[in-house]
Amino acid sequence: MVEQGQTSLAGQRLGAPETLGISTLEPGHKPPAMPPGHLVPIRVLLLDDSEEIFDISHRASGRVLFEMVCLHLNLIEGDYFGLEFQSHHRKMVWLDLLKPIRKQITRPKHTVLRFVVKFFPPDHSLLLEELTRYLFALQVRQDLASGRLTCSDASASLLVSHIIQSEIGDFEETQCRQHLLNTNYIPDQMFVLMCHIVLMTCIVLCVFVQNCPTDNAYCIAKELLCTERTYLKDLELITGVLDKEDCVPEALKTLLSSTYEPLHSHHTHFLQELEERLSLWEGPCSTEVKGEMQRIGDLLLKSAQELKALSGQLQMISECVFALERACVASRRLECVCREFELQKVCYIPLNVFLLSPLHRLLHYRQILDRLCKHYPPTHTDYSDCRAALDDVCELEAALRPGLEQIENYQKLLELQKDLIGVEHLAVAGRQLIRLGCLSKLSGKGLQQRMFFLFNDVLLYSTRGITSANQFTVHRQLPLHGMTIRESEDEWGVPHSFTLMVQQQSLVVAACSESEMEKWMEDLKMAVDMAEECNGLTADLLSASKDVKSSGASEVVESEDDLCGSRTSLPRNGNNSGNTLNRGNTTAHVCWHRNTSVSMLDFSIAIENKLSGNLLRKFKNSNGWQKLWVVFTNFTLFFYKTHEDEYPLASLPLLGYSVTHAGESENIHKDHVFKLHFKSHIYYFRTESEYFFERWMTVIRSATVSASRTRYLNRTEPD
């Protein structure tokens, strides 16, 4: 690791002006208007050493140029970056974003500005986008080569080994040696560095494919092993999270330990058996022994029978969620403990989702067993065990599913309660979440982005607030009873628009696409029908202390100045603690940034589509592949170095992305490669077999394509 203290000066780049909150976080956000005047070409050197020319008015401020650069890069988190240039005193200075460029640069035609990092965040998990991490890596590479980043030979070797692997791929001695001879990464680069690089690359990298079997039964067994590793780590997190906190009531501690510790013990033993069986399946042994070991039906049947004996613990999981919420309501201190835990890097999903994971795991066992039964002929030695295990799991799942559907909805309501300001008693009996996401509201100022939350009794819409957690401030509620919905594209001349009518008032909104409009209208009509069965749930939903209104109240001005407060990816005044903090990568926030929506149906599908395993990743402009342990859950890819890591290095929310096969024109020349694409962000991922290629494509499509209710009800599961 790079020594603390030695890297701070180069990394933080002291002397940078305080951030002005400039970024491109808001979808559709455009740079400030170009002032009149003749255009001057200004050259900007980017971090990948490419040079771009921007034609800009000689009267323009630094902000205009900076945001043009961010827009060109499609950069969301612009707060971390700045533009610097050499002054007439031959010193590097920052471009002031508020002052006109002509008052700072005397000869703009002959000056090259450099787009660079102003400072690095104290915790890389605060970053929202992979592009930001990539630009940081380029900055580190430049600082190493220039000598601004000083560190020991061992630290430099480790850093450079990662850089080389991202540029030229897996270690091959001749190629690596030649590359080091032609490329300079640190000042006075010596042969000892090459030795360090070779050594570290050999240690860090391993062959992606140790001649493993390619039979589908083996691949299914390996998927079970990989996902079981992730699941067991989640169970370990649950059993230790509240154990040492003295603010947790003893009754709650007893409930949690009696529920989760027996499950943890069972799955620890099951994982050990799986690892031993897969090791024998992969290793060299006699044909007779290999035939006996190339099966997992017996292990799954034994596990299913033991889980039936633990059905009492599984049935208590819902009560654990309810009990924890009651305890948090009664104890502000416990609420803060849980909130602070959710801000830690190990807590990559909400705490309540961890608590529900044993119920989710049953769904995965059912899928695994179903694929094995479809793969094996009835005469296969493993078929009878797999069939019996599938029957046991289906029986257990059927008994638990009604409670699971109820607690899943309750958990989502609790999560939204943390994201919303201006509502009370959101998580009450009878209320169901149907869809949440972005629509543009038509007003006298034109189309304005709003966040909508559709329940079975009410529709809320909000803007993102100005709190340190960027929560959503609710502006209005529309009761669904008596609401009518009609398309209005021809009426208003706005694509994908429709009108909501209730209590003699109307609201015109527009979706980002025709498919989004269809999904919103379908769910709204269903929700209106459901509202007839609700018994006045909306009576006390809005908070009396907040500046919000119901549909019958007088109009409340929605200040666009409030919206400007959300256009920053950084905590204000250095405040990174407090009771109002919340995760910035919740589903609602991702929907806001990506201008899309998800339904409760999408959440249900996502529960069944979790996956873990090794993938090779490559960026669009790099040649090398990086091996990562990847966990897919909650519409997001989480990246680790290995499955043993405690917390993810980075994450990539997939809402809004598209997933496709890598085309021949993209010059990948590798098998089993798929591409993730969102605007200018492109990532390539490579799997080890055709089976895992299809599995990753399937689960990722479930996150990138929101399901239509009609399509979901009519779907058939492929073999």
From TrEMBL:
**InterPro entries referenced in this protein's UniProt entry, alphabetically:** Band_41_domain, DBL_dom_sf, DH_dom, FERM/acyl-CoA-bd_prot_sf, FERM_2, FERM_central, FERM_CS, FERM_domain
Determine the domain of life of the protein's source: Eukaryota
Q: Does the keyword Protein transport apply?
A: no
Recorded hits in SMART domains, A to Z, give: B41, PH, RhoGEF
Q: Give the record's keywords alphabetically.
A: Developmental protein, Synapse, Synaptosome
Instruction: Tell me the GO molecular function terms.
Output: guanyl-nucleotide exchange factor activity
All residue ranges annotated as the DH domain in the record: 216-403
What residues does the PH domain cover?
432-529, 608-705
Residues forming the FERM domain are 40-367
> Membrane-crossing residues?
none
> What are the record's GO terms for cellular component?
cytosol; dendrite; filopodium; synapse
Where, per UniProt, does this protein localize?
Answer: Cell projection, Dendrite; Cell projection, Filopodium; Cytoplasm, Cytosol; Synapse, Synaptosome
- PROSITE patterns membership: DH_2, FERM_1, FERM_3, PH_DOMAIN
User: What PANTHER family would the database entry show?
Assistant: FERM DOMAIN CONTAINING PROTEIN, FERM, ARHGEF AND PLECKSTRIN DOMAIN-CONTAINING PROTEIN 1
Protein name per its UniProtKB record: FERM, ARHGEF and pleckstrin domain-containing protein 1
